[in-house]
Amino acid sequence: MPRRYDPERRQRIIDAAIRVVGGKGIAGLSHRTAAAEADVPLGSTTYHFKTLDELLVAALRQANEGFAKIVAGRGALEDPRTDLAAELAAWVGEWLAGDRTGVELEYELYLAALRRPALRPVAAEWAEGLAELLSGRTDPVTARALVAVVDGICLQVLLTGVPYDEAYAREVLGRVVAGARE
């Protein structure tokens, strides 16, 4: 039987992997579970992703796009009059107020890099990309500190279940920005 041309198959497998991780965690993801979720033959998953780490890298890269879309959509960083701390706090609030499962999934994939070295470069892309963006408004050290604070606040909200407090985030981020000016 001739092979059917299916240009969307790779993307369907990535989407399926994200759903599997969202429902069962990373431990529940295998080529077999991704294939079943995507409704494709098992061979398709191994054709497109030789290893499970390759599939996880693709899923993490796609998950990272969630926060990047919020940042790009707001576009306020170009204006030097924009309060950097307030803008960052608003970004985080918008991100956390969105699809909570997506945010949790993004962090689960992000933290999987602790045990899966293949994921580390992709996990670092998020932090480096945001720091680079913030470096347009502050020095590189402060930009990295802001990313660390954002990361910490997000993890605290996700792990404790405490509602996001934008005023608190704005205050903490403002202190980092103010410390850079001193």
Automatic annotation (TrEMBL):
PROSITE patterns: HTH_TETR_2
Keywords from the named record: DNA-binding
DNA-binding interval(s): 30-49
Top-level taxon: Bacteria
Domain HTH tetR-type: 7-67
Alphabetized PANTHER family for the sequence: HTH-TYPE TRANSCRIPTIONAL REGULATOR RUTR, TRANSCRIPTIONAL REGULATORY PROTEIN (PROBABLY DEOR-FAMILY)-RELATED
Protein name according to UniProt: TetR family transcriptional regulator
